[in-house]
Amino acid sequence: MTEKSSNISQTLKPVFLIGFMGSGKTTLCNALAARTKLKSIDLDDYIENVAGMSIKEYFSLYGEDSFRHLESESLKKAAAEGFNLIACGGGTPCFNNNMELMNRLGKTVYLHVPNERLFSRLVIARDKRPLIAKLDDDSLRRFIADKIAEREVFYRKALHIFDASQLEDEDQIERTSALFIEKYL
User: Fold this and answer.
1) Deepest of 24, 52, 130, 174, by most Cβ within 10 A of its Cβ?
2) Residues with Cβ within 8 Å of residue 139, at least 6 apart in sequence
3) How far apart are the first and last CA of the chain?
4) Number of other CB atoms surrounding residue 109 within 10 Å
5) Distance in angstroms (rounded) separating the CA atoms of residues 74 and 175
6) Is 66 helix (H, G, I), strand (E, B) or coil?
7) Is 87 in a helix, a strand, or coil?
C-alpha cells in the first residue's frame, strides 16, 4: 500500500455499493480494491463468516427476518471495522432502515444496470444463484422487472447513481473502475 492510498483509507468514509443482483457490486468492489489498495469486503462473504454457514443455509434454518437482522448488524460492524469499500447484498438497502444508516455512515452508490443487461449477466450465472436457479428465461425476465420495481425506491435513496453496465471484460472493468475512482474516491 502506498503512503497516499494508506492516507486515503484512513480518512475515507465507507463507500457502499448497492444494486440488484448481477449489477456488478462484487466485480467493481474487487477491481477498485485492487487498483486503490483500499480495504474492501463483500457483505455476503462477511455474513457467511460471522454465521459460520452459507446464506442459503442460514435462510433455511432461521428464516428471512433473522437473516435481515444479521445483515443489518454485519453492515454496522463492517463499517466500524474500517472497510472502505463494501459491496452490499441486493436486498440490503431494502430492510431495517439500512439505506438511512449507510447514507449516514458514508457514501452510497447505486450501481444502475438496465434490466436486459442484468438478464444477460444472470442467465449465465443462474445455476450459482439459488433464488433464480429454477427460473426459465421468461420467468427470469419477469423476476428481474418485478424485483427492480419493488427495490428501486430504496436504491434511488443512494447519494449517487453510477452506470455499471460496462463490466463485461477486463477492458470495460478497467475503464469503469477508473471512472468510479475519479468520481467517488
Assistant:
1) 24
2) none
3) 16
4) 24
5) 31
6) helix
7) strand
Proportion of the chain in helix, strand, coil states, percent, rounded to 5: 60, 10, 25
The cell numbers describing 15, all together, are 463507500
Amino acid at 6: S
State the burial class of residue 162 (Cβ atoms within 10 Å of its Cβ: 0-12, 13-18, 19+).
buried
Instruction: Tell me the pLDDT of the chain (185 aa) as tens digits.
Output: 444 444 455 568 999 999 999 999 999 999 999 999 999 999 999 999 999 999 989 988 999 999 999 999 999 999 999 999 999 999 999 999 999 999 999 999 999 999 999 999 999 999 888 789 899 999 999 999 999 999 999 999 999 999 999 999 999 999 999 999 999 99
In SS3 terms, 95-142 reads as CCCHHHHHHHHCEEEEEECCHHHHHHHHHHHHHHCCCCCCCCHHHHHH
Find out whether 84 and 107 touch, Cβ atoms under 8 Å. no
What residue type is 11 in one-letter code?
A: T
Q: What angle do CA 142, 166, 144 make, to 5 degrees?
A: 10
pTM above 0.90, yes or no: yes
Angle between helices 55-80 and 43-51 (to 10 degrees): 110
Here the cell at position 136 is 426459465
> Is 18 within 8 Å of 109 (Cβ atoms)?
yes
